Amino acid sequence: NSFCTLLAGAMPDARSDETRKPFVISLKEVWRGYWDLAMFITIVVVCIFVPLRIGFILREWQEWLALDIAVVIMYGIDVFIKAHTAYEHDGEEISDQKAILRRYARSWLVPDVLSLIPLEVFSAAIGHYEPAFLAGRLLRVGHLVTYFLAWERVSSLKPSIIRIVKSIFVVIFLAHFIGCIFQLIILLEGDAAKPAFTGSEGILEKSLPSRYIRSFYWSFVTMTGYNNTDPQTQTETIFSIFVTLIGISLFATIIGTVGSLVTNLDSSKL
Q1: Contact 196, 231 (CB under 8 A)
Q2: In the chain, count of helices (H) and strands (E)?
Q3: Which of 2, 37, 51, 174 has its CA 20 to 30 A from that of 43?
Q4: In a domain, 189, yes or no
Q5: Per residue in 81-109, pLDDT tens?
Q6: pTM, to two decimals
Q7: CATH number of the structural domain spanning residue 165
Q8: What span, in angstroms and rounded, lies between the C-alpha atoms of 238 and 119?
Q9: Structural domain of residue 261, as residue ranges?
Q10: pLDDT score, position 3
Q11: Are residues 160 and 74 in the same domain?
C-alpha cells in the first residue's frame, strides 16, 4: 500500500482527497505517444545488447556504464508514467488513480520494478561482475507486443501488413537471441563444442563480429531446418532440436499471415 501511495504521488495527510487532484496523464496527450516510441527504442536496444553481453560473456562493464545508467533512468521514468496514465475501458477513459494503480499492479508493475534492480552493479561492487545479472532488463520485452498493438490501432496501414512487419521483427530478434545463447553454450562447453561450429579454426580465436555473424547464421539455418553442422555435445543436440521446433512453429505462423494478407488483397479487388 505504501508503495502504491508513493507512486500515486499522494501524501498520507487528511487533506489529500479534499484539496488535491491526483496527477493523471490523459490518453489524448500527444507527448505520451512520443514517450512510447522512446521506450520502444530503449527496449529494442536492450534486446540487442543484453543478450550479446550475456551470450559472449562480455565482462568489461565500464564500457557499458553510460548505456546501463540511461536504461535504468528510462525504465524508472516509465514506471512513474505508467502508474499515472489513464486507460480505456468499454470506450471510456478511466482516470481514477486507484483504479489505474490496481490495473498496473495486476499487470506489469512487478516485472517493471524488477527490471530496475541493478544486480550487475552489486556484482561489480563485490569484484565479481557477471553479465548474466543483466537478464532482468529483458523482463520488459513483452511491452513490445503492446506497442505493436497500439501501432496497429492508430496506423493507416492494413493490419495484415503490420503483422508481417511484426513477424519479420520477431524472426530477426529470435535469431539474435538464439545465436547469443548458442555462443554461450560454446563458451561454457569449451573444446568439446567448438569443432561442431567452426571446424579447425576455433571460434574463440575469431573477432567478436565474426563470432556473432557465425552465431546469427547458425540460428537462422537451424530454425529453417537446413543446418549443416552436426552438434557434438548433448547440450548442443537438445538446443538444436528446441530451436528447430521454434522455427517450424514460427514460419508456419508467418506463412499463415502472408496467406491472409494475399486473401485480403484479392478480396479488395473484387
Answers
A1: yes
A2: 12, 2
A3: 2
A4: yes
A5: 999 999 998 889 999 999 999 999 999 99
A6: 0.83
A7: 1.10.287
A8: 30
A9: 155-270
A10: 43
A11: no
